[in-house]
Amino acid sequence: MCRVPGVSVSGYYDWRGHEPSHHEREDGEISQEIHRIFHAHREVYGSPRIQVELVAKRQRNKPIGTKQRKDAQVAPNLLNRAFSTPPLTQNG
User: Fold this and answer.
1) 38, 45 contact by CB (below 8 A)
2) Residue 59: predicted pLDDT
3) Cβ atoms within 10 A of the Cβ of 41, count?
4) Distance (Å, whole) CA 47 – CA 55
5) Confidence of residue 67 (pLDDT cuts 50, 70, 90)
6) Are 1 and 15 in contact (CB under 8 A)?
7) For residues 13, 17, 22 and 23, what is the CA-based torsion angle, rounded to 10 degrees?
8) What predicted TM-score, i.e. pTM, was given to this entire model?
9) How many whole angstroms separate alpha carbon 10 and alpha carbon 48?
């Protein structure tokens, strides 16, 4: 079996016994959420509606940001850098 894909036997058993990566675990969670949404809507939701629900759910859990304190001060420009870009030229 290992000869066909060109994998060593020890490599196969090493792969088979590995822990799932963060990406694989995240994919599994998303897959479960897709199944939950599909079954919750009587198995008639297609991929566009499921995607809208997934995006809405992930945005609810996403941090909105931090509020700037009223007494906060802008850091001084110690290097005296001018953060601007030169104007674009009309050369093709």
Assistant:
1) yes
2) 75
3) 13
4) 12
5) low
6) no
7) 40
8) 0.52
9) 43
DSSP string for residues in 35-60: HHHHHHTTT---HHHHHHHHHHHHHH
Q: Please give the angle made by the CA atoms of 66, 67 and 73, to the nearest 5 degrees.
A: 115
| Token output for 58 | 């992930």
57, 33 in Cβ contact below 8 A? yes
Higher pLDDT, 75 or 26: 26
Q: Provide the CB-side half-sphere exposure for 38 (13 A, CA).
A: 10
Cα–chain center distance at 32: 16
Q: 47-61 vs 22-40: helix axis angle to the nearest 10? A: 120
C-alpha–C-alpha distance, residues 89 and 91, integer Å: 6
Q: Please check the confidence at residue 92 and state whether its pLDDT lies above 60.
A: no
Alpha carbons within 13 A on the beta-carbon side of 19: 2
Cα separation of 77 and 3, whole Å? Answer: 63
